[in-house]
C-alpha cells in the first residue's frame, strides 16, 4: 500500500545540501498501524510529508496505492490526497477565519455531498472529538488542543484509506489523546485504514503494531 524505495530528500543549507532523509526504504501494508519514532531532526516529518505528496524526493520513489507520487503534478496530487489521505500535521492547520464546523466541512467538498450532508457529517465528527459545543467558534479563537481536535476531525471526516499524523497528541491532554487513539483504532478495525504516525509519546507507541526507528535520516529497522 505504501512503499518508499531508496528515498533521499535534501534541503539547501547555504551552499551545500543537507540530506534530511537518506536511502530510506520501507513497506507498509494496508491496515497496518505504524509509528515513526526517533529524535527531533531525524527526518520523521520529512518522510510523512513525502508520503502525503507535500514534498517530493530527489532520489528514489514513493508509491501509495500503486501510484508513484512523483508522477502526479500539482492538481492531480491534490486530487489524490483528497481521495486517499488524511493529514494531521501541526503546520498544515486550520483556516483561522472559518468556524470549527466549516473547517471540517471543507474536507468533504470534493466528495460531491450536499451542503446539508456535509454539515451533518462534520458535526458528527466534531461530536466524536468532544467539540459539539465549539462548532460555531472561529478556529482562531480555539485553544491549541481544540484546534488539534478540529484538525483530527477534518482528517478523519472523509474516511481516507491512509492517515498520516505528525505528533498528533502533542497538544492534547491524556483524556483527549486516548479518545483520539481509540477513534483511530476503531477506524482501522472497521475500514482497514492504514495509520502512519510520527511520535515520541509512549501512550501513542503503546497502540502501535510496528515501530520504525529513525536516526539521521535513515531507518534503523
Ligand atoms: P517535528 O515537530 O516533527 O520535529 P519539525 O518542527 O522538525 O517537526 O518540522 C515540522 C515541519 O517544518 C516539517 O514539515 C519540516 O519540513 C519543516 N522544517 C523543519 N525544519 C526546518 C527548517 N530548518 N527550515 C524550514 N523548514 C523546516
Ligand atoms: P523530525 O520530524 O524527525 O523532527 P524533520 O523531518 O522535521 O525531522 O527534519 C529533518 C531534518 O531536516 C532537520 O535537520 C530539519 O532541520 C531539516 N529540514 C526539514 N525540513 C526542512 C526545510 N524545509 N528546509 C531546511 N531544512 C529542513
From TrEMBL:
Q: Which residues form a coiled coil?
A: none
Please verify whether the record's keywords include RNA-binding: no
Keyword Nucleotide-binding listed: yes
- Domain of life of the organism in this record? Bacteria
Q: Which GO terms describe its molecular function?
A: ATP binding
Any Pfam family from its record, for instance, is ABC_tran
Keywords assigned by UniProt, alphabetized: ATP-binding, Cell membrane, Membrane, Nucleotide-binding, Transport
Residue limits of the ABC transporter domain?
2-221
Protein name (record): ABC transporter ATP-binding protein
Amino acid at each position: 500500500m505504501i512503499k518508499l524505495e531508496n528515498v533521499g530528500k535534501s534541503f539547501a543549507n547555504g551552499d551545500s545540501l543537507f540530506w534530511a532523509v537518506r536511502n530510506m526504504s520501507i513497506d507498509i501494508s494496508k491496515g497496518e498501524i505504524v509509528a515513526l519514532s526517533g529524535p527531533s531532526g531525524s527526518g520523521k516529518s520529512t518522510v510523512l510529508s513525502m508520503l502525503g505528496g507535500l514534498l517530493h524526493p530527489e532520489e528514489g520513489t514513493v508509491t501509495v496505492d500503486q501510484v508513484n507520487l512523483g508522477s502526479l503534478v500539482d492538481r492531480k496530487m491534490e486530487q489524490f490526497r483528497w481521495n486517499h489521505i488524511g493529514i494531521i500535521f501541526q503546520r498544515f492547520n486550520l483556516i483561522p477565519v472559518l468556524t470549527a464546523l466549516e473547517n471540517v466541512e471543507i474536507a468533504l467538498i470534493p466528495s460531491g455531498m450536499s451542503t446539508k450532508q456535509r454539515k451533518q457529517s462534520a458535526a458528527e465528527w466534531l461530536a466524536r472529538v468532544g467539540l459539539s459545543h465549539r462548532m460555531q467558534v472561529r478556529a482562531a479563537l480555539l485553544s491549541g488542543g481544540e484546534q488539534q481536535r478540529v484538525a483530527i476531525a477534518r482528517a478523519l471526516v472523509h474516511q481516507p484509506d491512509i492517515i498520516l499524523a505528525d505528533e498528533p497528541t502533542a497538544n492534547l491532554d491524556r483524556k483527549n489523546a486516548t479518545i483520539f487513539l481509540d477513534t483511530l483504532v476503531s477506524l482501522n478495525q472497521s475500514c482497514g485504514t492504514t495509520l502512519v504516525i510520527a511520535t515520541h509519546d509512549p501512550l501513542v507507541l503503546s497502540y502501535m503494531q510496528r515501530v520504525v526507528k529513525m536516526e539521521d535520516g535513515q531507518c534503523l529497522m
